[in-house]
Amino acid sequence: MIAAVGAALSGCLALDDVAQTPQLSSTIKSEMARKGTTPESPVLVRIFKQESELEIWKADKSGNFALFKTYPMCRWSGKLGPKTKIGDRQAPEGFYAVSASQLNPKSQYYVSFNLGYPNRLEQALGYTGEALMVHGACSSSGCYAMTDKGIGEIYAIVAKALDSGQPSFQVQAYPFRMTAQNMAAHKGDPNMPFWRTLKEGYDAFTITRRPPKVSACGGRYVFNRNFTAGEPDSPVASCPPSTDMLDATLSARLQTEESKVDAALAADLPASSTMSAYVDGGMHKSFRAILQQAGPKTMAAKVSGTKYPVSRPEAALADPFGQ
């Protein structure tokens, strides 16, 4: 089975297929047309650590977003939970806005885009760090690393949307797919209050299929609120008066999702024994198969034209969710 996976991936990851300057391929354009979107339409990115996946969402003619493509992630570092200080090897979790100035077509990791960590809320909370990227090569020290071919496609897609008038695209970075079941599996984690806040934004997007309006006050993210006197001046001061941007039906659906989490967390079920088992980040199971079969040197050559080795391969093989 591993041999079959390795053979299939080695074909799709051939370095000859990676353009020096990423451009939208005819295949991607045709796929967009089949899915009712265009290269010029707005884009949104979602990242999931536990699943080691990055999603590209594209807007259709109605303005609603639909999943366009899911990319397996080659490497991320740290553990589940937000980044709080420089050098902690944590990949960020939260909501970020990426503009054209944050794209780097000449990255040392092929191409990349900067998430913009620390964002305004994180700065106010005293979090430190810089140059947290989504990039090529299978090496991470706080970043999200894709294959060269994967980041090439992603870069071309987001660059085209920005070049076509989208001021910035939203990146939603999560510890895992934020179902009530996954929340319950990690109920003993000290990051749970923060993750419950992230889930509010996750649910808002899932229900509306529109990027949530993200604000910050009271030391947390606040979603889809219209503030009477304009956006809060301080991300850590108490939230000023506001009104809900969503209608009563959508707000009720969000309350239902919150109730599901309350029930799941209250259930007399043990938390997952793997919740804190990460040695140092993870890797998608498809790449884990290549790493196990071929070793880190061969894998590094398969996934990237740069000279960066797979970061901490032993830790990647220890990914409790990479089975």
Automatic annotation (TrEMBL):
Q: Which GO terms describe its molecular function?
A: carboxypeptidase activity; transferase activity
SUPFAM superfamilies the UniProt entry points to: L,D-transpeptidase catalytic domain-like
One Pfam family hit: YkuD
Query: Could you name the active-site residues?
Result: H135, C143
The UniProt record lists the keyword Cell wall biogenesis/degradation:
yes
Q: What is this protein called?
A: L,D-TPase catalytic domain-containing protein
Signal peptide range equals none
L,D-TPase catalytic domain segment(s): 43-174
Going by the entry's taxonomy, the superkingdom of the source organism is recorded as: Bacteria
Q: Does the keyword Cell wall biogenesis/degradation apply?
A: yes
Q: What is the lineage of its organism?
A: Bacteria, Pseudomonadati, Pseudomonadota, Alphaproteobacteria, Hyphomicrobiales
Which keywords does this Swiss-Prot/TrEMBL entry list? Cell shape, Cell wall biogenesis/degradation, Peptidoglycan synthesis, Transferase
What Gene Ontology terms for biological process does this UniProt record contain? cell wall organization; peptidoglycan biosynthetic process; regulation of cell shape
Q: Which CDD domains match?
A: YkuD_like (cd16913)
Pathway(s) per entry: Cell wall biogenesis; peptidoglycan biosynthesis
Record family assignment? Belongs to the YkuD family.
